[in-house]
Amino acid sequence: MSDPSTIEAFWRDFLTSQPDQERSSPPEAWGFGDNPQMADELGRLVTAGIKTATCSALWEVEAEGSPLPQVGDLSIILDGDGQPLCVVETVEVAIRAYDAVDAAFAYAEGEGDRSLDYWREAHRRFFARILPAIGLQFDEAMPLVCERFRVVYRPPAVHNTGESPGPIAA
């Protein structure tokens, strides 16, 4: 569970590093997947610059009443303990059927061996696990919200790629 004061402090650090950023309250803070281990693993891939895309079931977004991500949105990515890892900016959003996701998107998701075969199997298992909670079942034609993003801030404490920490150049 994330601590609001930790999120606020992280956001203030981000704002300090981005003098042109509009001063506002923190954006949505969230972790990848449906369990702490997945949030840790995928969060590490993001901070390492390997994972630059993600997807979710449109059906789940609609069931939650959540807005679709928009280009330019900022998000705080959390680890499995709810601790902030980085800030990402959405750079592309597309609705695609599961069976229309291509190898380039699978590669950008950064998981496993980054192949389309790996992506399909891992996401089939994931969606088969989460969709029953909203009364639906996995379907190869199901619509996905496919999102590409870029890291715009990561503090030195979570930086592990050998580049200088802090703001990320566009």
Please characterize this protein's 3D structure.
Strand 3 and strand 4 form a beta hairpin. Strands 1, 2, 3, 4, 5 and 6 form a 6-stranded mixed sheet that branches. The chain contains 5 helices and 6 strands. It has 170 residues and is an alpha+beta fold.
Tags for this model:
170 residues, alpha+beta, 5 helices, 24% strand, disordered C terminus
Topology diagram in text:
Blueprint: H1 4-17, E1 29-30, H2 36-47, E2 53-57, H3 58-64, E3 74-78, E4 84-97, H4 103-109, H5 116-130, E5 143-154, E6 166-167
Parallel strand pairs: 1-3
Antiparallel strand pairs: 2-5, 3-4, 4-5, 5-6
Helix pairs in contact: 4-5
Radius of gyration: 16 Å
Could you tell me the mean pLDDT?
91
Taken from the alpha-carbon principal axes, the silhouette is globular
* Proportion of strand residues: 15-25%
Low-confidence stretches: 159-170
From N to C, what is the helix and strand string?
HEHEHEEHHEE
What is the terminal-to-terminal distance? 31 Å
Query: How large is the count of helical segments?
Result: 5
What's this entry about, in short?
It contains five helices and six strands. It has 170 residues and is of the alpha+beta class.
